[in-house]
Amino acid sequence: MAKLKEEEIIDRWSVLIEGANGRGKELFKKVDENLKEIKAPKVEILLKEVSPSLMRKKRGEKRTFLVVQNTYLKNYLMYIGAADYGKQLFVSWYLTMEPSALQKFSP
Predict the structure, then answer these.
(1) Most buried by CB count within 10 Å: which residue of 59, 63, 83, 101?
(2) By residue range, what is the domain housing residue 92?
(3) Per residue in 61-97, pLDDT tens?
(4) What's the Cα-to-Cα distance from 6 to each of 11, 26, 53, 79, rounded to whole Å?
Protein backbone atom coordinates (compact mmCIF):
# COMPACT_ATOMS: atom_id res chain seq x y z
CA MET A 1 0.00 0.00 0.00
CA ALA A 2 1.36 3.40 -0.96
CA LYS A 3 1.47 6.37 1.41
CA LEU A 4 1.05 10.05 0.59
CA LYS A 5 4.03 11.77 2.20
CA GLU A 6 3.60 15.44 3.10
CA GLU A 7 7.13 16.32 1.96
CA GLU A 8 6.43 14.90 -1.51
CA ILE A 9 3.15 16.80 -2.10
CA ILE A 10 3.89 19.81 -4.30
CA ASP A 11 0.30 20.88 -5.02
CA ARG A 12 -3.18 19.92 -3.87
CA TRP A 13 -6.82 20.77 -4.40
CA SER A 14 -10.10 19.54 -2.93
CA VAL A 15 -13.81 20.26 -3.04
CA LEU A 16 -17.04 18.95 -1.51
CA ILE A 17 -19.73 18.28 -4.12
CA GLU A 18 -23.18 18.54 -2.57
CA GLY A 19 -25.54 15.64 -3.24
CA ALA A 20 -22.91 13.55 -5.05
CA ASN A 21 -22.32 10.88 -2.39
CA GLY A 22 -21.99 7.39 -3.83
CA ARG A 23 -20.61 8.63 -7.16
CA GLY A 24 -16.86 8.22 -6.56
CA LYS A 25 -16.49 5.21 -8.86
CA GLU A 26 -18.37 7.11 -11.56
CA LEU A 27 -15.90 9.99 -11.21
CA PHE A 28 -12.92 7.63 -11.51
CA LYS A 29 -14.44 6.01 -14.60
CA LYS A 30 -15.09 9.40 -16.26
CA VAL A 31 -11.53 10.63 -15.61
CA ASP A 32 -10.13 7.36 -17.01
CA GLU A 33 -12.37 7.60 -20.11
CA ASN A 34 -11.45 11.25 -20.71
CA LEU A 35 -7.71 10.57 -20.51
CA LYS A 36 -8.04 7.65 -22.91
CA GLU A 37 -10.23 9.69 -25.26
CA ILE A 38 -7.66 12.47 -25.63
CA LYS A 39 -4.93 9.85 -26.14
CA ALA A 40 -2.54 11.57 -23.77
CA PRO A 41 0.89 10.14 -24.67
CA LYS A 42 2.84 8.10 -22.14
CA VAL A 43 0.07 8.35 -19.52
CA GLU A 44 -0.65 5.37 -17.27
CA ILE A 45 -3.71 5.16 -15.03
CA LEU A 46 -4.39 2.72 -12.19
CA LEU A 47 -6.47 2.38 -9.04
CA LYS A 48 -4.40 2.12 -5.89
CA GLU A 49 -5.04 1.80 -2.16
CA VAL A 50 -3.25 4.68 -0.44
CA SER A 51 -2.79 5.62 3.19
CA PRO A 52 -3.01 9.39 3.74
CA SER A 53 -0.44 9.36 6.57
CA LEU A 54 1.88 7.08 8.55
CA MET A 55 -0.42 7.07 11.59
CA ARG A 56 -3.45 6.15 9.51
CA LYS A 57 -1.40 3.46 7.75
CA LYS A 58 -0.56 1.90 11.13
CA ARG A 59 -4.29 1.89 11.99
CA GLY A 60 -5.06 0.24 8.66
CA GLU A 61 -6.86 3.27 7.23
CA LYS A 62 -6.68 3.54 3.47
CA ARG A 63 -8.44 5.21 0.57
CA THR A 64 -8.75 4.34 -3.09
CA PHE A 65 -7.13 6.80 -5.48
CA LEU A 66 -6.87 6.96 -9.23
CA VAL A 67 -3.13 7.34 -9.82
CA VAL A 68 -2.03 9.04 -13.03
CA GLN A 69 1.58 9.00 -14.21
CA ASN A 70 3.32 10.22 -17.33
CA THR A 71 6.13 7.71 -17.90
CA TYR A 72 8.31 10.52 -19.25
CA LEU A 73 8.04 12.24 -15.84
CA LYS A 74 8.41 9.15 -13.64
CA ASN A 75 9.06 11.05 -10.41
CA TYR A 76 5.68 12.82 -10.61
CA LEU A 77 2.37 11.19 -9.71
CA MET A 78 -1.14 12.61 -9.57
CA TYR A 79 -3.49 11.08 -7.01
CA ILE A 80 -7.20 11.68 -7.56
CA GLY A 81 -9.45 10.72 -4.67
CA ALA A 82 -13.20 10.59 -4.15
CA ALA A 83 -14.83 9.66 -0.85
CA ASP A 84 -18.32 10.03 0.53
CA TYR A 85 -18.68 12.63 3.27
CA GLY A 86 -22.25 12.52 4.48
CA LYS A 87 -24.45 13.45 1.52
CA GLN A 88 -21.49 15.00 -0.26
CA LEU A 89 -18.58 13.68 -2.29
CA PHE A 90 -15.14 14.82 -1.17
CA VAL A 91 -12.93 15.03 -4.27
CA SER A 92 -9.21 15.59 -3.81
CA TRP A 93 -6.21 15.88 -6.09
CA TYR A 94 -2.55 15.70 -5.11
CA LEU A 95 0.49 16.23 -7.31
CA THR A 96 3.53 14.54 -5.82
CA MET A 97 7.19 14.38 -6.70
CA GLU A 98 9.41 11.67 -5.31
CA PRO A 99 13.09 12.53 -5.61
CA SER A 100 15.20 10.01 -7.48
CA ALA A 101 17.80 8.02 -5.53
CA LEU A 102 20.49 10.39 -6.81
CA GLN A 103 18.50 13.45 -5.71
CA LYS A 104 17.90 11.98 -2.24
CA PHE A 105 21.61 11.61 -1.54
CA SER A 106 22.93 14.79 -3.13
CA PRO A 107 23.51 17.85 -0.89
Answers:
(1) 63
(2) 2-105
(3) 788 999 999 999 989 999 999 999 999 999 999 999 9
(4) 10, 28, 8, 13
